[in-house]
Amino acid sequence: MRRWNATRSRSRSALNNQIALLHAARVVPGEQDLADDGTGILYHLSVEQAQMQDQKHQPVPNMYNATITAKWTFRNVPQERDVSELIYQP
């Protein structure tokens, strides 16, 4: 059980790192596989324009919904986790 918790913790930390990298870059709507970070975890990024409105019911530009999906294998069992983040880029 301890090894399973360490693996989950490592995947959570790796996803947080990928989100931090995402905030440092310009996001573009679309789908892409992300570069290998040496952890053995495969990452996929999906970005779409967020459909949001302000108080006057006007569209909010430059708002994106980004989802990073992490996939790996633990004891020959495929694992998958994802994290989504709302990103504003002026």
Notes on the protein architecture:
The structure is a single chain. The protein is α+β, with helices and mostly antiparallel strands and 90 residues long. The protein contains one helix and four strands, in the order αββββ. Strands 1-2-3-4 form a four-stranded antiparallel beta sheet, with helices on one face. The longest helix has 23 residues, at 2-24.
> How is the main sheet built?
4 strands, antiparallel
Distance from first to last alpha carbon: 45 Å
* Gyration radius from CA atoms, angstroms: 16 Å
Q: Indicate the mean pLDDT.
A: 86
The poorly predicted ranges are none
Q: What percentage of the residues does DSSP assign to strands (E)?
A: 35-45%
Number of continuous helical runs: 1
Order of helices and strands: HEEEE
Structural class: alpha+beta
